[in-house]
Design a protein that fits this description.
Blueprint lengths: L12 E2 L6 E5 L6 H9 L9 E5 L5 E2 L8 E9 L2 E8 L4 E8 L4 E9 L10 E3 L4 E5 L3 E6 L3 E4 L5 E6 L2 E9 L3 E9 L5 E11 L5 E5 L2 H11 L1
Antiparallel strand pairs: 1-2, 2-3, 3-4, 5-6, 6-7, 7-8, 9-10, 10-11, 11-12, 13-14, 14-15, 15-16, 16-17
């Protein structure tokens, strides 16, 4: 049994894209959107902490300490670097920061005005390439490094970009529950293809499409009988 001291953070989860790193935070002021609402109402925002834990030896790294009024969102892993999203509410800035654990080097990738986003709800980092996105119930936006916006369905969720295609997943109850993969054109947002199934992002960065071919499954089940 291995004991890992994460300095008060009691939950970690795989760091998307790495296969070897986990991340955790303490949600001291809720999630990022809740922290933003606290700040807008005039309350002080206690910064959250962001730690990374390496598997299998359990090394713990806390590369950046947030200051009062700053707040981290979920990080990702890209080209050997931790990519961190840190919002500074007093300065109205969005900071995207990279940390390379091999060299222990921290660098600022970009600083954006907070006004580029209507609010911090569903503000997130995504791949590939690295981008800052946001979505509401009926709109998807790429805020950096390009600027795009187009309507989407109310239950759609964005997962990743692959070349000139954007991959979304949506759920429906009509009346039975079902899920669907939706592929949209990067430039226009128009739907290229829909297919039954769901998307899973694997810890090492692989992107799995879990397709639902009921006829094929039933045929295989019949053979096993």
């Amino acid at each position: 049994m291995k004991e890992i001291d994460t300095y008060g953070i009691h939950w970690i989860e795989p760091l998307e894209g790495s296969g070897q790193w986990f991340w955790g935070t303490d949600y001291s002021s809720g999630d990022l959107y809740e922290a933003e609402n606290l700040f807008k109402k005039g309350y002080s925002v206690e910064p959250n902490r962001l730690v990374f834990v390496h598997y299998p030896e359990g090394e713990v790294i806390e590369p950046v300490l947030a200051e009062p009024g700053q707040y981290f969102e979920k990080p990702i892993y890209d080209n050997g670097r931790f990519i961190m999203l840190l919002v500074d509410f007093p300065l109205a800035k969005i900071n995207i920061i990279a940390y390379k654990p091999e060299t222990k080097k921290i660098s600022s990738l970009v600083t954006l005005p907070l006004a580029v986003a209507e609010n911090c709800r569903n503000l997130a980092l995504r791949l590939s390439p690295l981008m800052l996105v946001r979505q509401s119930d009926d709109k998807f936006q790429i805020l950096w490094p390009e600027n795009k916006s187009f309507p989407i369905g109310s239950t759609e969720g964005f997962y990743f970009r692959k070349e000139e295609k954007l991959y979304f997943s949506a759920w429906y109850e009509d009346p039975d529950y079902r899920v669907e993969i939706i592929i949209r054109d990067f430039d226009t947002g128009k739907v290229i293809k829909k297919m039954p199934g769901s998307i899973r992002l694997m810890p090492d960065g692989q992107q799995w499409l879990l397709l639902q071919n009921r006829n094929l499954f039933c045929g295989a089940a019949d053979k096993m009988r």
